[in-house]
What we know:
Shape: elongated
Number of strands: 28
Largest sheet: 6 strands, antiparallel
Strand content: 25-35%
CATH class of the largest domain: Alpha Beta
CATH superfamily of the largest domain: GAF domain
Structural class: alpha+beta
Distance between the termini: 102 Å
Low-confidence stretches: none
Radius of gyration: 47 Å
Mean pLDDT: 82
Number of domains: 5
Helix content: 25-40%
Amino acid sequence: MHHQDTAVYFEVYTTKDGMPNNIVNGILEDDTGNLWISTNKGITKFNTEDLAFRNYDKTDGLQGNEYNYTASLKSSRGEFYFGGKNGFNVFRPEDIKENPNKPAIVLTDFQIFNESIDKVKVRRAARKVYQSISEVDEIKISHKQNVIGFEFSALDYGNPGKNQYKYMLEGFDKDWTEISADKRYASYTNLNGGKYVFRVAGSNSDGLWNEEGLSIKLVVRPPFWKRKSFIIISLLIIVYLVIRYIRERQQKIARDKKMLEDKIKAGMEEVEKQKQEVANKDVELEERIEGDKEQNWYNIGMAKMSDVMSKNKDDLLKLSQRIITEMVEYVGIQQGALYLLNDENESDPYLELMAAYAPDDERLEGKRNNLQEGQIGACFAEKKIIKINNLPEGYANLISGLGESALKNLVVIPLKLNEVAVGVVELLSIEAVADYRIEFVEKAGETLTAILTSLKANVQSRKLLDQQKVQSEELSSQEEELRQNLEEMQATQEESSRRADKLTKHTNEFKEKEKKYLEKIKKLEATIKTFKKKK
Length: 535
């Protein structure tokens, strides 16, 4: 659009200027000023600086070539959305890069009378050998082979359906012939004897051309009747003499060549043997270096785990959280959890989630896992490592600032010592965990098991002592009550003796009360005896 005084002028762009279609359904502008336009024949990028269009269609991954009117949106994160009949496409303009590679052009097939010729004869080192058609730079044919064809291809596989080609046979064609990617073939008939050059230029899917392209010499041998007769006769005589000489020479050369080849072969075998020995030594050295790296990693990790266990061995919850955090970070995975056996209720033991690293809240909801439930229960029951490298979608996810990622690899390792298990460690990761890292967790788990067993025993001992203290206090209270009752009974008896004459009528009542106190004393004595036996 141009301004001149108060007048406004618009520049109109159509398919003649490079647009894929003249119907515009949506326009979005990127951060560099380029316009992205959806049409009824794909999406086009309009460069506002050089006024050039770059078209994209279904072959580039679009939902289809036809888009809906006004179905376009630029999100707050800079993503472009375009909707069409088959769904929508979302992308970031800065992620759409032009293909910078000029494709190499190769000859994929050469045909004579519609039959493919895989190899052709060429002269190499004073002798004729067969060479693959894709490697030749010159082809010789007879004038009788008057129907030939060339098939070629550009080595660019980003979107090969959009590659473009043009070819010509110098000495025969006057201009280039342009063709699309689905017609990579050129045929010629009845060529006169002589020398030609077949040339092919090609572009990649973004229209970047390799103008130098492919160049192959074509020699068409003329018929013998077009040669001068005296040359033929002379050549025949010369050829006859030469053939005899050549045969003799060839026989001698063959003998000499055989001897030389035998010597070369013996030398090559010795060299190959020495190369193999050197290669074997290199492999052994690499394996040793790799083994040393793994051992060093293992030793450092064991020292790190021992330090964490030593500093937190008196606090079960703190120990659990610190050890699973250090273990997950050192092994280099994304999630981890530590489950321990809770058997306080002997009739209902279960595995309790003590600590977790970067947990999936939905998957780890609740802290109880039954002994026979899932991979956790199976690992604890069998006391064996469980590895699964292709978890189903939704089993576990990692949520971060970059979005949500599925964790596809699971390793469950029993915490055991001398075949006695106290819990399990669960590891979840995007990539598979190496075996030596799993072995590290297993060995560190043995030390952790010993500490957890000791810590659990100490906790149980403290509980038992607290119970005994409560029972002792209850016993002391009962003894004091018994002493008070005996004193009360003694005082009652003395008062009763002084007033025996006056309280005769109450004697029976006193005896009844005395009988009740005696029964209470017997019960208290029985309780004391029972407690002492338990103690």
